[in-house]
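Reviewers of the previous submission asked for a worked example of the structure-prediction workflow described in the proposal, so we include one complete record here. The input consisted solely of the amino acid sequence. No template or homolog information was supplied to the procedure at any stage.
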Amino acid sequence: MSDTGRAGDLLGQIPRSEKKGLPPVHLWNPPFCGDLDMRIARDGTWYYLGTPIGRPAMVRLFSTVIRRDGDDYFLVTPVEKVGIRVDDAPFVAVRLEVEGEGEAQVLRFVTNVEDETEAGPEHPLRVELDPQTQEPAPYVHVRANLEALIARSVFYQLVDLAVPREVDGVSWLGVWSHGVFFPIGPQA
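From that input alone, the workflow returned the following structure tokens.
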């Protein structure tokens, strides 16, 4: 993708900050300017006009201005809001770092766009089961109301860390992080 065209115009509107951090997209309420032919695939690949965006720095920049309103996703700048398609979740948790053990354990997830989040009360883990296949789809809350799909290899790491615990009379396997027990599957 070249820096020209509508996506390039959007890039030019993203404020640069001396401090590292995320722009306050939750505070911006620009007018909706239509949909952009941009899609985030389930594997975390970003596409523009049907072509993968090959520059990681550009993907990272776009990822800083994504916002979810209801079930819809947008790229938001102070002056423009454009709709994009997201196949599942806008991020993929591709790495897990574990500190401590037991109830004192901390699970830190790193996404495909290098965001880091520690599972806990503010950033819960959840697992959805496909009704037909019963295949788990695990997620971790990243920011605002945005989640990362946990990559299969990372989910296997969670399974290796899982311990049994009874929750509401049901025996679960789950993991601890920041003092919170997150069920990841029923204990067989």
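Residues 60 and 113 are 5 Å apart (CA to CA). We consider this example representative of the routine output the project will generate in years two and three.
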